[in-house]
Amino acid sequence: MAVRTITPPKNFETTAWKWMRYSGILLIPLVWIHVLLQDVIVGVHAIDLDYVVLRWSMIGWQIYDILLLAFAFAHGMNGLRQVANDFIHDPKAQKTVAWVIFVLWLVVSAIGAIAIIASAAKHAAGA
Amino acid sequence: MSTFISSLQTTLKGYATYRGREGHLSFILHRLTGLGTLLFLIIHILDTSTVYFFPDLYEHAIALYRSTPFMLGEIALVFSVIFHGVNGLRIAYLDMWKPSGWHVESQRKSVRTTLIVSIVLWLPAAGLMSYHLLHNNFGMF
């Protein structure tokens, strides 16, 4: 069977399409190790405030959690945008929904990033 | 608004009645597991952030995660994360390196393999999490 080769246009949707695949491959080790450690091996009964503060006092786990937050949440929110476009066909409405998703992504990512970066310093200061 | 309702109905009807067998099943499962994981992720980012913003509230959040319904949800979440990952790897591989694998017959095979691999990876995790649940919430073992 003949294979037809096309060159996709270099636009936002092409970049988003590639992003979903490359970030997805990266997320397999990132998310699976995180879930295996926290949910399966450690378990929620062994997790408390001190556990999280201790984890975030280590630069290695801070970087790990920042990567997880950045890649997993952006992957998920872009996926939500793609699902929404399946249900909403009006281009203007699609644009509005994309902006709402973008702002929500930015706000929640910022909240998470501040917590990961600043929490160890705050608890070390005795606050 | 009425055009939105009609496009909503069209899409949902397509999801429900399209008879694409394995390919259709993997499409539906990929969406459900992705959306489910995203919903959990939003809650998870916000509640874990209370460690910095409202430390007193964190213990309440973690107490909720230790309840039986949440622990059952956690077992389902782990299946979602595993299936979405294995199936996503299949999609990325076929799209970028082996597009000929999208033919109906080979795709049916790769979907079945994906499901089997996901269940095999999930079972030991589900077993260990069930042990945590029965041990901590029901005093067993």
Write the layout of secondary structure elements.
The complex is a heterodimer of chains A (127) and B (141).
Chain A: H1 12-42, H2 49-55, H3 59-87, H4 91-124
Chain B: H1 2-17, H2 21-53, H3 55-65, H4 68-96, H5 104-138
Helix pairs in contact in B: 2-3, 2-4, 2-5, 4-5
- CATH C-level class of chain B: Mainly Alpha
Largest sheet of chain A: none
Gyration radius of chain B, in Å: 19 Å
CA-based shape of chain A: elongated
* Total domain count of chain A: 1
H and E order of chain B: HHHHH
Largest sheet of chain B: none
CATH homologous superfamily annotation of chain B? Fumarate reductase/succinate dehydrogenase, transmembrane subunit
Q: Would you tell me which CATH topology of chain A applies?
A: 3 helical TM bundles of succinate and fumarate reductases
CATH architecture of chain A: Up-down Bundle
Q: Please give the most extensive interface between any two protein chains, plus how many residues each contributes.
A: A-B, 48 and 48 residues
Structural class of chain B: mainly alpha
Total strand count of chain A, please?
A: 0
Annotation, overall tally of beta strands of chain B: 0
Secondary-structure element series of chain A: HHHH
Distance between the termini of chain B: 56 Å
